Amino acid sequence: MALVRIRVGESIMKTQTQDTPIKLQETLKRQRDILAFRMKKLSSKQSDFNSKTAKLKEKIMKKYDDMKRVLDEDLQITLCQLDTEAEAMERAVEDNIEKSYCLTKEIDQQLAELSAQLEKDKQQSQEKMSEMKVRIMETLKKTDPELIQMDEFKNKQLLGLTINLLLFIRSQVPVTKKLFQSYAQEVVLDPDSAHPKLIISPAGDSVTYTNTWQEVPENPSRFDTTLNVISRKFFQNVRNYWEVQVTGKTYWELGLTYPNIPRKGREENCWLGRCPKSWCIEYFNGDYTAWHNGIPHELTHVSGRTFERIGIFSSSEGGFVCFLGADTMMPLYSFCAGTFTDSLYQAVCPGHDNQGTNGKPLLICDASKYTHIL
User: Fold this and answer.
1) Given a cut of 80, is residue 222 above it in pLDDT?
2) Is cis: bond before 191, omega within 30 of 0?
3) How far lies 53's CA from each of 178, 259, 331, 355, in Å?
């Protein structure tokens, strides 16, 4: 009986051993089918995004065309009104010139008649002369150029309304500025996270590099190699926007990071954008580079340009991180993470002194206040 059990067990083990590659093959086939279906869904998603973006662009372009048409129509109405008034004044002037010319002809005729009749009938000549004087005075009075005037007060009002319209339009554009301002968040830098060579202002709204190692307490949250500092709080809203003034600087990095970004040692992961846990834009001597997961994206379309402010927009719906030149709201680069797996903190790096050219601080701005864009 024992021998029978041993043989049965061996037979079962042999069967399982033989079935394993088949089952593994079937499993891999199912997984391959799942991945193929996933790629199909992703491709469909991409097409859907492209279609929605195209439709949105078409709608926005139509609205801008409508605005252009409305403004063109209003311009034509305004110019037509001015032309109508100018034509009326021109007709009045021409009419007065005609009247003056006709009277001049009559005067010439009467002068000729007077010369001929001067010796014949002095009394009659004096009467005609008196009548002509009256007509001349009346004509001079009626054709006085000062009587034909432009309505300067009305024209000033018209110009004023046009200027107000221009100012209103400027106050509403770029529309992305108005939109992102509604997502503005307060950013306060955390001195406990700052590298010892960084000076954080008491209000936490600026950071300056110093070549002197500051006497600061060591803690796990402090960057000890990279010149980084992050915010005290993380974003809690779905959409967030903030701005940093970078005027006068030749080197800086700005971005967003998860709280568990490496902070100790000389690993490259400690730098912003060099690991999957952070996104940043870097500026160095006129060149811009966007970084994430250690992959650089050179922004040649803005190479050599300088901005007073850089804006950073993020949205947890879709996992977007967008960098902009806030002066003109020029898009610099956008990342799409799909979804954020942790809280987002604001991160800045003022950079080293760059041979004495980078001593200015990075200033956190109030992004909710409108800055006029020409």
Assistant:
1) yes
2) no
3) 20, 33, 16, 45
Distance CA 279, CA 68 (A): 38
CA atoms within 13 A on the CB side of 297: 15
Q: Is the torsion defined by CA of 134, 138, 140, 141 positive or negative? A: positive
Mean pLDDT value across residues 241-270: 95
- Single out the residue of 90, 191, 96 nearest to residue 150, CA to CA: 90
Mean pLDDT of the chain: 86
Q: Return the pLDDT at 15.
A: 46
How many angstroms separate the CA atoms of 224 and 195, rounded? 5
Q: How far apart are alpha carbons 343 and 162 in whole angstroms?
A: 48
Q: What is the enclosing helix (H) or strand (E) of 35? A: helix 2-117
- Determine what percent of the chain is predicted with pLDDT higher than 90: 47
- Residues 4, 257: Cα–Cα separation, whole Å: 66
Sign of the CA dihedral with 101 first, then 105, 107, and 108 last: positive
Contact indicator for 252, 351 with CB cutoff of 8 Å: yes
The dihedral over CA atoms of 129, 135, 137, 139, expressed in degrees to the nearest 10, equals -150
- Give the contacts of 293 (CB within 8 A, at least 6 positions apart): 273, 274, 275, 276
With tokens 């790629």, the residue in question is: 39
Q: What is the mean pLDDT of residues 232-258?
A: 97
Q: What CA dihedral angle connects 369, 53, 291 and 199, to 10 degrees?
A: 10
Q: H or E stretch including 136?
A: helix 122-142
Write down the pTM of the prediction. Answer: 0.72
Q: Are 370 and 171 in contact (CB under 8 A)?
A: yes
